[in-house]
Design brief:
Shape: elongated
Radius of gyration: 26 Å
Number of helices: 9
Largest sheet: none
Order of helices and strands: HHHHHHHHH
Structural class: mainly alpha
Distance between the termini: 84 Å
Strand content: under 5%
Number of domains: 1
Oligomer: single chain
Number of strands: 0
């Protein structure tokens, strides 16, 4: 199913809704800690397979939809941050698929996250680390702007641009009126 999603074009709005719904779903991809008795471990493993035949499917679909690189509403970004940060106290070992989905999310949408959300993700990766992926996530977070940063400078740049246009127009009008006055004096 995920390979089909990779190959087809999906409208951005539908992708955003799908990501929002997946982020709100209960995650099922972590490996449970083995119980003390081997027999109970096998029983638990068989019951997990019966209840959830595709552990980690949430992460696969999150990663595939994020790889579409659509511009997402902040509500979806916030829901995805909440989804990932919800694992901060998780005792189970999370699969590589989960870490890959988090990495893709951070790579694509790091500048759409607030400074507080970035701090939460940094706390998360202290508890849910992966020997190769965590360093990359941390680098992406540290080397990027946050949501809202740079907007004030962009607004002041636009204001300065408008001011320069106004000053240029005034200078042109002044020169024009001086030229008209010189012609009339002749």
């Amino acid at each position: 199913m995920a390979s089909i999603i990779v190959k087809v074009s999906i409208p951005a709005l539908q992708s955003a809704v799908a990501l929002l719904k997946i982020a709100q779903m209960e995650y099922s991809g972590a490996s449970p800690s083995p119980p003390p008795r081997q027999g109970a471990w096998l029983l638990l493993a068989h019951s997990r397979i019966a209840l959830n035949p595709l552990p980690g499917a949430n992460s696969i679909f999150i990663r595939v939809l994020l790889d579409k690189k659509y511009s997402l509403p902040y509500r979806v970004i916030d829901a995805l941050v909440d989804h990932f940060v919800g694992f901060i106290k998780e005792e189970r070992m999370l699969p590589v698929l989960w870490h890959q989905a988090l990495l893709v999310f951070v790579q694509r949408y790091k500048e759409d996250m607030t400074p507080n959300q970035k701090a939460q993700v940094k706390q998360l990766i202290k508890h849910q680390g992966h020997h190769t992926i965590t360093g990359e996530i941390l680098r992406e977070l540290n080397e990027s702007k946050s949501r809202g940063e740079g907007q004030a400078s962009a607004e002041s740049t636009v204001a300065l641009h408008h001011l320069l246009i106004l000053a240029s127009t005034m200078l042109i009008l002044t020169n024009l009126s001086l030229s008209l006055a010189d012609m009339m004096a002749m």
